[in-house]
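Subject: Interface between my chains keeps coming out wrong

I've been trying for a while to get a sensible model of this assembly. When I model each chain on its own everything looks fine, but I need the whole thing in one frame so I can look at the contacts. Pasting all components below, labels as-is. Any help appreciated, I'm running out of ideas.
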Amino acid sequence: MYHHAGFFCRTIMHCEVTQMKLTNEILSEILDEVRPLLGQGQVADYIPALAQVQADKLGIAVLTNEGELFQAGDAEDGFSIQSISKVLNLTLSMGIYTPDEIWSRVRKEPSGQAFNSMIQLEVEHGIPRNPFINAGAIVVADMLQTRLSAPRQRLLEFVWALSGDTHIVYDKVVARSEMKHSDRNAAIAYLMRSFGNFENHVLPVLENYFHGCALKMSCVQLAKTFSYLANQGVSVLNHKSVITAVQAKQMNALLATCGLYDEAGEFAYRVGMPGKSGVGGGIVAIVPGEMTIAVWSPELNSSGNSLAGSKALELLSGRIGRSIF
Amino acid sequence: MYHHAGFFCRTIMHCEVTQMKLTNEILSEILDEVRPLLGQGQVADYIPALAQVQADKLGIAVLTNEGELFQAGDAEDGFSIQSISKVLNLTLSMGIYTPDEIWSRVRKEPSGQAFNSMIQLEVEHGIPRNPFINAGAIVVADMLQTRLSAPRQRLLEFVWALSGDTHIVYDKVVARSEMKHSDRNAAIAYLMRSFGNFENHVLPVLENYFHGCALKMSCVQLAKTFSYLANQGVSVLNHKSVITAVQAKQMNALLATCGLYDEAGEFAYRVGMPGKSGVGGGIVAIVPGEMTIAVWSPELNSSGNSLAGSKALELLSGRIGRSIF
Amino acid sequence: MYHHAGFFCRTIMHCEVTQMKLTNEILSEILDEVRPLLGQGQVADYIPALAQVQADKLGIAVLTNEGELFQAGDAEDGFSIQSISKVLNLTLSMGIYTPDEIWSRVRKEPSGQAFNSMIQLEVEHGIPRNPFINAGAIVVADMLQTRLSAPRQRLLEFVWALSGDTHIVYDKVVARSEMKHSDRNAAIAYLMRSFGNFENHVLPVLENYFHGCALKMSCVQLAKTFSYLANQGVSVLNHKSVITAVQAKQMNALLATCGLYDEAGEFAYRVGMPGKSGVGGGIVAIVPGEMTIAVWSPELNSSGNSLAGSKALELLSGRIGRSIF
Amino acid sequence: MYHHAGFFCRTIMHCEVTQMKLTNEILSEILDEVRPLLGQGQVADYIPALAQVQADKLGIAVLTNEGELFQAGDAEDGFSIQSISKVLNLTLSMGIYTPDEIWSRVRKEPSGQAFNSMIQLEVEHGIPRNPFINAGAIVVADMLQTRLSAPRQRLLEFVWALSGDTHIVYDKVVARSEMKHSDRNAAIAYLMRSFGNFENHVLPVLENYFHGCALKMSCVQLAKTFSYLANQGVSVLNHKSVITAVQAKQMNALLATCGLYDEAGEFAYRVGMPGKSGVGGGIVAIVPGEMTIAVWSPELNSSGNSLAGSKALELLSGRIGRSIF
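Reply #2:
Try treating it as a single job with all components included. I did that and got this:
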């Protein structure tokens, strides 16, 4: 019996003490508890299309590795996934590039800076700190551009396959609005190009990058899509291998240290799960070996992460006694 | 039976597939595998006393939460624990300050900078990024100075109790050598004082801080001392509660995002354990719920972390299939 | 008689003690004295077209406000004036914009940074430090683009008029080479656009900017062209007013504090004249009220200023006892 | 006769056109013109002793190289000269150190930063940008400490000799208040020490440095004291040589590029004279070869320079047609 083996199986004892079976009711209670936070954050307004979202939306969905789906609130409403798409692009790149190819062009360290700062990028000679800040994600988009014939279509098909839902589309209004306000990202791309860390024309790469950001998905779709990260690289939905178990572990490590902008430490401290947020108000969080969580509330805190969303994850982590620490 | 509940108990299935029982032999094999790295790093030389260490030392010790001790190599040789002492000081402060008192004076975010950079400290108005960079550790030392009558003696007794070994001492030569080369840390302290984030006279606080760094401990002693972090706050050795289970979880979160200087991301990616390194070449790593690991090899990589030590942890993580991700 | 009034007319006494009449021989002697420096600097190589220049070229020309021309060495050879063109563009902008319009978009302070750093630009929200670093010059080019129908042609005609020489042309090879290596300048322009400090399409503005840099002129032509700065805004050549006397004074003040990249202080200390350098190895220097000097030697020092050229100016300043201090 | 030689003697023609004989009335008119600015700036309040000054004080004094003294307003009231003392210390150091000794420890470039920033100091390895920012002035104070047996007394005697007034004293209340708020300057000193650019104990050097800042002098005393800078190194008062003519010229160059904190460019543009300001509201300005000006008004602009004082200098420069450009 493995749970006699001593140091390996902490979960047994653990379970008996603090864990609670997940239900839709628990999720509803958590949403009720965080609802008073609505009105205390700020909807992202750097592009007009995002600013028009209904600010008091709130939803959550959990997919266990066994395939059970739990949800509450506006869990089936689509929203702009924004930076969460950076994980999808990195996952795609892992399939067509070697680790050395990837990690020579982008590093794996937290930035300690605002998500779109150019200062560090200049000091560190055009090599972005990690693939989840804009600069890093744009490098990954450049890599996809180089090796995929139709990266935008490929990303969409990838999401369709992972979510099992071919109704997911790019929100063209958002994509166009992003492109109209893309000067800073263009500056980032040109700066990397000046250091030799950018291969293609800037504008088409940005177009593709912004389309990823403009994917419109619901919490339920996101939980399904990212289930491979909780399940050793294998999609819980279709049981297909997306990346290797080792790659899934590595991706979770990256998410844990770099996934929440300049708030990764605080999120680890309070929630204790690898995760990725977007300025659309979505957060995806992973309990490796167990479940994938997606939460959504459009109002952001000062670090650009969903205010009510991160609180909901903190409560969920405490309620079901699950974190990686 | 909770381990039937599905998504909660990942460890069961997990165990059946990838885990291997730990033995002294496994540890010896790992040390043999990393030994070729000796000679490829740099012993810390910023103070003469550290530069004199024997560069080819190599040791590892593991204490499971069940109290089994495994070890290999120079696991009983004492060395300068240096920054590992920052965890001890923070643990002490958690007992005498509220979270709000602590986290208003030091943050919880990775710095994205060299461990002793003053730039960020100035830009962020004297509030250090986290308690494991020098500035943050000096703030914690300042807090201890304010509320403890004899902080240096208190720290020593704390280590004696945790390790069960009253032979542990401060290496006076190292402490004095640190103090002679303390200008940059004095600059850091004075800068924080200019922002109102420092309460005591600078030199006595630095004296105490450096004494912590000058603690001479072995891998075995370290594994015992830090076992409370793997065991929900309770010392595996004497079964006394050091901090609460929640605090232990939080400390592990801090270690995972900030414990390895500017290499936390890389360490998470390769090793996948919360950990804390010191420029003496020691690293302590935690598998929450399972075991505490201490490794030592004096030669450092360019980020100031033990070169062979971090490789040994990477191999161990792979061999026994344990990480937090 | 005002020159008896005491404090006004320092020059009288001054003249009797230290000054020496300028001659072609003095200029030749100075060139001989600096010639040993040839071989100790570095020809600019960031674009291939510049790297091909003959490294041991050396020339100087002086035009007095009375219209006397002195020259020595390769004073009639054309070379790429590069950043010296920034003064021409700023002069043009002074004719079509009010001071408030100009100085709200670019400041007047030394940067304390490398000429093409983006860090300061981000920290200071897209407002460049001064019109002689790249960012500032690109803003000025953007302003010209907005209000001139054919800025490139206008600049050329302006230079023809000032130099009295319609053979001056843009070196198309250099301009094309600059454009091929324009990524960093594009990054700068897009960053300013992201802060709302850029009005036109980036590429056409850069094209015009680079054409200015690619003007091919000789020392003699430069001394004639910039004579208005020494002569209260009036061209010594054609006696036409280019800018007002106050504007000329202001331009000299800008040149004295910001004209020599990150070496303005050293240049003031050694030479004591307002001046502007270019990475083609040219430097124009002004003795207000007296003369305009142009010197050329392609090898640069570590700050990007002509090594032999700035030494020649230092010697000239000492020999004829003229500086602004 | 050299003043016939053409390009040397710009002053002749110049005089006939724009200059006006200086009188006390002109100075009074200028003060009346700037008086409306009183109330629009901020008295320095970083130390309590400075904050207590009467905010609406306004005075000006001019000493010509012929020894004529003009003055208006509160020109004989003593005030804290603060950073103006940096020029005195540098002058003293020029007498006991070679240029190489001085300029290897401090540079001559504008900082492009706030006067007490540590960022640049860290990036540039403990070598301050120039002797007029705090870091540079503290290095100079360290040099004086090394070679003078009683630097504080020496400075006082130096000022007595230059001003011809032995009633000038250190304001002990200000000096003590500075010392109480010296943390940031201590941080700067320790940081330089960590880079090997500081030789003595920090606190005694700071004590001396702050005493210089705490010199209490009037505009009249300042104009007399600094007359050597306008007069080729020779005191107008006692006709003794303080520094060489070349050194005076170099000092003026340093003042022109670095003397007004992060506003040297603006000051050159508007006033066109080498100058040095202090947060006590004083500014000393030099017209080389002609006169020394001191102005005082305690309220500062956002760059830390006297608001009404710098405006008065701008008006004076325009009225008498004198600037270096």
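Reply #3:
Confirming on my end. Chains B and C do not touch (no CB pair under 8 Å).
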